[in-house]
């Protein structure tokens, strides 16, 4: 019979052993001369199993924290559990530091210092619980979260733009969960942000668009930023202003030269109508007295009959 302190007393016959049969039993021998008793401890051994409660199928790790992949398995003798990433070849064996003893297993089993989680640890792992009576296998999917990595910020077509042109800046960063983006921009009315804030477009660049453009990527694990210095080239405008000044100067020079030419050609040879020329500068020139020794110019006046 089973010890009443450990469970109900019941007779044993020939049947299949179950785990519930484990315990302390009292064997009693009796005849007319007396009674003899003996205590017997029965241990039931069985193959391993890995329940969901002790070994969830989905794991979420954070980059930079210690790896924890141990699974609690049941079995007698206590099984040892090893976990390795699926897809590792013989040439690239599983990371031995991920092979950990079962939390319920042999306390004397050697334990290794867990590595630090990296993005490369994401994937599917197979955990195997083994003892003398068999083994059990359970697959685990591991996702790794991390803060935004270095931000990449590209200016298209270039960070050196010409006045009046259109340019854009594209911002990118890896992170899990996916990061959100924010900008610090020179104040200008011709800026347009993309729908997901990953880009900004500037149309008709002006001097107001010069300056530092900073994109910041953020998620619940951190943030990272990148910057680009944009310059707006106005050399063509300066050249145009210079050309305009030269053009105005040329017009003044031409006007002065034209006046001098007209003055120098007054009172020269030609054909005149006396009646029309009497009140003109030419008539005054014709009637002007000349010094005796100044031969002057000889003018011929053609008289037009009435």
Automatic annotation (TrEMBL):
| Stretches of the chain forming a coiled coil according to its record | none
PROSITE patterns in alphabetical order: IG_LIKE
Q: What Gene Ontology biological process does one annotation of this record name?
A: cell adhesion
Residue ranges of the Ig-like domain? 48-143, 148-231
Extract the GO molecular function terms from the UniProt entry: integrin binding
Q: Which InterPro entries match?
A: ICAM_VCAM, Ig-like_dom, Ig-like_dom_sf, Ig-like_fold, Ig_sub, Ig_sub2
Among Pfam families, the record links this protein to:
Ig_3
Highest taxon listed in the record's lineage: Eukaryota
What are the entry keywords?
A: Membrane, Transmembrane, Transmembrane helix
User: Which regions span the lipid bilayer?
Assistant: 236-262
- Example of a GO cellular component annotation carried by this entry: plasma membrane
Region described as Disordered: 82-109
Protein name as it appears in the record: ICAM5 protein
User: Which organism does this record belong to?
Assistant: Piprites chloris (Wing-barred manakin)
Gene designation per UniProt? Icam5_0
């Amino acid at each position: 019979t089973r010890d009443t302190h450990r469970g109900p007393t019941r007779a044993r016959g020939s049947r299949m052993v179950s785990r519930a049969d484990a315990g302390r039993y009292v064997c009693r021998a009796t005849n007319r001369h007396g009674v003899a008793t003996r205590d017997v401890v029965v241990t039931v051994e069985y193959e391993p199993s890995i329940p969901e409660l002790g070994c969830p199928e989905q794991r979420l790790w954070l980059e930079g924290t210690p790896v924890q992949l141990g699974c609690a398995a049941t079995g007698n003798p206590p099984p040892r559990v090893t976990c390795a990433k699926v897809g590792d070849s013989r040439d690239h064996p599983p990371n031995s530091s991920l092979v950990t003893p079962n939390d319920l297993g042999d306390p004397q089993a050697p334990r290794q210092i867990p590595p630090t989680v990296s993005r490369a640890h994401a994937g599917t792992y197979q955990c195997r619980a083994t003892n003398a009576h068999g083994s059990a296998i359970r697959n685990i999917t591991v996702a790794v979260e991390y803060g935004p990595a270095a931000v990449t910020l590209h200016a298209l077509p270039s960070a050196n733009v010409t006045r009046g042109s259109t340019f854009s800046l594209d911002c990118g960063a890896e992170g899990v969960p996916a990061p959100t983006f924010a900008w610090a921009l020179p104040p200008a009315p011709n800026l347009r942000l993309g729908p997901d804030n990953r880009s900004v477009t500037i149309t008709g660049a002006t001097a107001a668009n010069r300056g530092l453009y900073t994109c910041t990527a953020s998620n619940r694990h951190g943030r990272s930023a990148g910057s680009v210095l944009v310059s707006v080239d106005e050399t063509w405008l300066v050249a145009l202003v210079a050309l305009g000044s030269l053009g105005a100067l040329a017009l003044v020079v031409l006007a002065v030269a034209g006046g001098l030419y007209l003055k120098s050609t007054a009172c020269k040879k030609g054909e005149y109508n006396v009646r029309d020329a009497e009140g003109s500068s030419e008539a005054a020139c014709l009637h002007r007295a000349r010094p005796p020794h100044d031969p002057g110019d000889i003018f011929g006046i053609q008289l037009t009959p009435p």
